[in-house]
């Protein structure tokens, strides 16, 4: 067999400069799943910052004040181990889903895909179907073309700005953010971030689109490491589909030595990444299932069985059963569950209070005019709740010792307050030169909010 290979075919192009992808609108089961899921995620993204909780924004990542508020839970820089654990759990959960269902994250819930398909939907409503958009782009500049392009990009920009302000409302109190923006009273820093995120949204979803997934996203590069022969991927059944070729609905494909693939090319036209799934597994594929909907639609019209393209594993394609209990998949699930359990235990035993005891560095001890020994201390009390708390201060370890200083102290939420105290004891009551003592700080309105710290008491 002789292949006619041209020299230009051997040149590897690092970027598809000459290809513009015009995605055809597609309806079907998997598209419906995605739209419902995207609506849920989008409404959640928009509405969560407006949820009130005890007169405050329920979810707020207040970077300026170094606190992350999640309803009744407030996380401080000292609690960032929980945030690290959350990222670890998310990573293992992503690995689990990828090993099980391939890149469904990319195809169904990734913000890049969600916003790209929203922008394409706007493009479709304004400029028309895929063929109409191609014809419009190839036509000469006219008033009609300029008007459609202006309307489309204006809507894209409005969507981008709304996306950016919504994202910023997770970091700046929502009513303050929108009020300042409407009244043109926002700080330069806030305006900078809003327009930066708006520009990124407009550029990624409007212009870069699949190029972000193919060339810039690191996930698309290392995802194949998590695949195995049991991973469910969007797969074309070449044994059933080949030889592909056009035919009439009334034709018998077997008499023409044809498979079920009618070579309609719809699976390529609906693909957001612009790939041909019939060429086999490709890292550009985001497992969105649009090609499955398009192919099933064609199979129905021709009276053929559906699922010429389907979610299936390599083992299943080769006639072997898919193993749902493989070690890699179970391992990812166990690690994900273990991290979530550890975080739940940590949250259950966590006390939103922090205290420290610091001795006076200049004076180890001193004698007062009554001949009693005094040891000065500075207690630092951090109120990590969202309410004002009144704390009692008690000391134990030395009988008959007297605590000079405030016995109760009020601490505002999120405030670290220093309280100087002095412990006075009679030296004759002490059998050692160094005695262990314990300071206990307890909330008067909530006895479960209590912590103790040990220190030393010195005598001559």
Automatic annotation (TrEMBL):
<dbReference type="InterPro" id="IPR051684">
    <property type="entry name" value="Electron_Trans/Redox"/>
</dbReference>
<keyword id="KW-0411">Iron-sulfur</keyword>
<dbReference type="Pfam" id="PF13746">
    <property type="entry name" value="Fer4_18"/>
</dbReference>
<dbReference type="InterPro" id="IPR014116">
    <property type="entry name" value="Cyt_c_oxidase_cbb3_FixG"/>
</dbReference>
<dbReference type="Pfam" id="PF12801">
    <property type="entry name" value="Fer4_5"/>
</dbReference>
<keyword id="KW-0479">Metal-binding</keyword>
<keyword id="KW-0813">Transport</keyword>
<keyword id="KW-0249">Electron transport</keyword>
<dbReference type="GO" id="GO:0046872">
    <property type="term" value="F:metal ion binding"/>
</dbReference>
<protein>
    <submittedName>
        <fullName>Cytochrome c oxidase accessory protein CcoG</fullName>
    </submittedName>
</protein>
<dbReference type="GO" id="GO:0005886">
    <property type="term" value="C:plasma membrane"/>
</dbReference>
<feature type="domain" description="4Fe-4S ferredoxin-type">
    <location>
        <begin position="252"/>
        <end position="280"/>
    </location>
</feature>
<keyword id="KW-0408">Iron</keyword>
<keyword id="KW-0004">4Fe-4S</keyword>
<dbReference type="GO" id="GO:0051539">
    <property type="term" value="F:4 iron, 4 sulfur cluster binding"/>
</dbReference>
<feature type="transmembrane region" description="Helical">
    <location>
        <begin position="329"/>
        <end position="349"/>
    </location>
</feature>
<dbReference type="Pfam" id="PF11614">
    <property type="entry name" value="FixG_C"/>
</dbReference>
<feature type="transmembrane region" description="Helical">
    <location>
        <begin position="36"/>
        <end position="55"/>
    </location>
</feature>
<feature type="transmembrane region" description="Helical">
    <location>
        <begin position="181"/>
        <end position="202"/>
    </location>
</feature>
<keyword id="KW-0472">Membrane</keyword>
<keyword id="KW-1133">Transmembrane helix</keyword>
<keyword id="KW-0812">Transmembrane</keyword>
<feature type="transmembrane region" description="Helical">
    <location>
        <begin position="75"/>
        <end position="97"/>
    </location>
</feature>
<dbReference type="InterPro" id="IPR017896">
    <property type="entry name" value="4Fe4S_Fe-S-bd"/>
</dbReference>
<feature type="transmembrane region" description="Helical">
    <location>
        <begin position="154"/>
        <end position="175"/>
    </location>
</feature>
<dbReference type="InterPro" id="IPR032879">
    <property type="entry name" value="FixG_C"/>
</dbReference>
<dbReference type="InterPro" id="IPR013783">
    <property type="entry name" value="Ig-like_fold"/>
</dbReference>
<dbReference type="InterPro" id="IPR017900">
    <property type="entry name" value="4Fe4S_Fe_S_CS"/>
</dbReference>
């Amino acid at each position: 067999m002789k292949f006619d290979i041209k020299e230009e075919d051997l040149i590897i192009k690092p970027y598809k400069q000459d290809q513009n992808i015009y995605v055809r609108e597609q309806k079907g089961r998997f598209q419906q799943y995605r739209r419902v899921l995207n609506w849920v995620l989008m409404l959640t993204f928009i509405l969560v910052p407006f949820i009130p909780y005890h007169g405050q924004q329920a979810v707020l990542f207040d970077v300026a004040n170094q606190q992350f508020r999640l309803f009744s839970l407030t996380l401080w820089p000292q609690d960032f181990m929980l945030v690290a654990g959350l990222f670890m759990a998310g990573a293992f959960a992503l690995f689990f889903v990828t090993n099980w269902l391939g890149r469904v994250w990319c195809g169904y819930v990734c913000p890049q895909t969600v916003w790209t398909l929203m922008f394409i939907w706007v493009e479709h409503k304004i400029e028309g179907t895929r063929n109409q958009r191609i014809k419009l782009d190839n036509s000469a500049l006219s008033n009609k073309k300029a008007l459609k392009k202006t309307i489309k990009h204006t809507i894209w920009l409005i969507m981008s700005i709304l996306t950016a302000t919504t994202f910023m409302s997770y970091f700046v109190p929502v009513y303050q953010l929108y009020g300042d923006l409407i009244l043109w009273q926002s700080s330069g820093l806030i305006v900078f971030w809003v327009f930066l995120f708006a520009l990124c949204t407009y550029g990624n979803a409007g212009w870069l689109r699949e190029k972000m997934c193919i060339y810039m996203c690191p996930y698309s590069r290392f995802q194949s490491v998590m695949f195995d022969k049991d991973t469910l991927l969007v797969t074309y059944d070449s044994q059933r589909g080949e030889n592909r070729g056009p035919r009439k609905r009334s034709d018998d494909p077997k008499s023409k030595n044809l498979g079920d693939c009618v070579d309609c090319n719809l699976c390529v036209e609906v693909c957001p990444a612009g790939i041909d799934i019939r060429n086999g597994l490709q890292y550009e594929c985001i497992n969105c299932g649009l090609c499955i909907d398009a192919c099933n639609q064609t199979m129905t019209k021709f009276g053929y069985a559906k699922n010429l393209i389907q979610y299936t594993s390599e083992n299943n394609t080769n006639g072997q059963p898919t193993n749902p209990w493989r070690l890699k998949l179970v391992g990812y699930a166990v690690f994900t569950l273990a991290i979530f359990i550890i975080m739940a235990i940590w949250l259950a035993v966590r006390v939103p209070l922090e205290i420290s005891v610091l001795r006076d560095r200049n004076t180890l001890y001193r004698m007062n005019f009554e001949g009693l020994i005094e040891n000065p201390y500075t207690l630092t009390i951090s109120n990590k709740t969202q309410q004002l708390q009144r704390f009692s201060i008690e000391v134990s370890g030395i009988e008959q010792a007297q605590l000079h200083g405030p016995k109760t102290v009020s601490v505002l939420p999120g405030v670290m307050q220093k309280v100087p105290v002095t412990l006075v004891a009679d030296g004759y009551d002490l059998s050692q030169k160094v005695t262990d003592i314990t300071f206990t700080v307890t909330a008067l309105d909530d006895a479960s909010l209590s912590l103790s710290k040990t220190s030393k008491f010195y005598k001559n």
